[in-house]
């Protein structure tokens, strides 16, 4: 059967941006991350985008040891493809960020395609008290934070992971990042089909207007023709609106508590699986089908 009407759901389970104070449902411990990942896969996620955290404080932890505490369980419990972050947290250096992907050689790793201001400082005032003392400084420091992804950094990650057969989720936060990807394609350092993850709604990146989504898609079409597979993630409250627009335009969808803590206006999502179920409703409502992990492998030419 053709994969034409299949939509890949990626679920980003915990990330490195949201903090424990923001939601009691944000998975922090290895047990929680494993359980959330398995439930998301069960609900329809074909790809699991994974970060690790310190179980005591919820602080992002990019050591391979932290990933080793949940990865075997996730791999054993589901056929969903594993996607390990190389973004880590915007505070980390690229050498630290790449270590888990280099060690575990996943089918997919994220690759951030350019530097941006990464603004979260405006969230610091929203909470009166924080559970852990790293949280407020983490948010406030983003007033002066550049999420650095220089050409050298990108090349470093590519070269470190390429021989492992890992393919990339190219995270593009702005139009220029598509051009950066085209540059690496021209140099022969990346191979199609490119899995382009367009990110909308981060302060410092492109906005969430329908025209922004159109502009990303049109530019990617012009640069890559039929050599890319398009996926979108909308940050915060834009998550499902962006997902619905992109799915209607033939795109794939990323959801998960890394990107949004919400399941409706003012209502916290109680799990990653809840957001996956909402994505499934959109896809099926459009008369399309949710891709299985093997269909996703086929579409993205993953190593399996
Ligand atoms: N937090 C997302 C907006 C990464 O892990 O490489 C982007 C992300 C980065 O997922
Ligand atoms: Zn991530």
From TrEMBL:
<protein>
    <submittedName>
        <fullName>3-keto-5-aminohexanoate cleavage protein</fullName>
    </submittedName>
</protein>
<dbReference type="Pfam" id="PF05853">
    <property type="entry name" value="BKACE"/>
</dbReference>
<dbReference type="InterPro" id="IPR008567">
    <property type="entry name" value="BKACE"/>
</dbReference>
<dbReference type="GO" id="GO:0043720">
    <property type="term" value="F:3-keto-5-aminohexanoate cleavage activity"/>
</dbReference>
<keyword id="KW-0479">Metal-binding</keyword>
<dbReference type="GO" id="GO:0046872">
    <property type="term" value="F:metal ion binding"/>
</dbReference>
<dbReference type="InterPro" id="IPR013785">
    <property type="entry name" value="Aldolase_TIM"/>
</dbReference>
<keyword id="KW-0862">Zinc</keyword>
<keyword id="KW-0808">Transferase</keyword>
């Amino acid at each position: 059967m053709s994969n034409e009407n299949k939509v890949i759901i990626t679920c980003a389970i915990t990330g490195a941006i949201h903090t424990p104070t923001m939601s009691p449902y944000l998975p922090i411990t290895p047990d929680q991350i494993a359980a959330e990942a398995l439930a998301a896969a069960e609900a329809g996620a074909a790809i699991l985008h994974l970060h690790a955290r310190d179980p005591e404080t919820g602080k992002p932890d990019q050591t391979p040891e932290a990933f080793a505490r949940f990865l075997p369980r996730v791999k054993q419990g589901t056929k969903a493809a594993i996607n390990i972050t190389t973004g880590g947290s915007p505070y980390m250096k690229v050498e630290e960020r790449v270590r888990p992907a280099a060690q575990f050689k996943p089918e997919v790793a994220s690759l951030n395609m350019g530097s941006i201001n990464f603004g979260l400082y405006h969230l610091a005032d929203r909470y009166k008290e924080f559970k852990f003392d790293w949280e407020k400084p983490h948010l406030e420091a983003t007033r002066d934070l550049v999420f650095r992804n220089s050409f050298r950094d990108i090349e470093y990650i590519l070269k470190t992971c390429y021989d492992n057969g890992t393919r990339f989720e190219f995270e593009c936060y702005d139009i220029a990042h598509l051009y950066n990807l085209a540059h690496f394609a021209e140099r022969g350092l990346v191979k199609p089909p490119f899995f382009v993850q367009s990110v909308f709604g981060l302060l410092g990146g492109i906005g969430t207007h329908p025209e922004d989504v159109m502009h990303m898609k049109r530019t990617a079409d012009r640069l890559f023709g039929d050599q890319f597979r398009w996926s979108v993630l909308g940050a915060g409250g834009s998550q499902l609106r962006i997902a619905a627009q992109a799915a209607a335009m033939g795109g794939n969808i990323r959801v998960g508590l890394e990107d949004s803590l919400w399941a409706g206006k003012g209502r916290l999502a109680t799990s990653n699986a809840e957001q996956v179920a909402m994505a499934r409703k959109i896809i099926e409502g459009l008369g399309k089908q949710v891709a299985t992990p093997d269909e996703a492998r086929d579409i993205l030419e993953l190593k399996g």
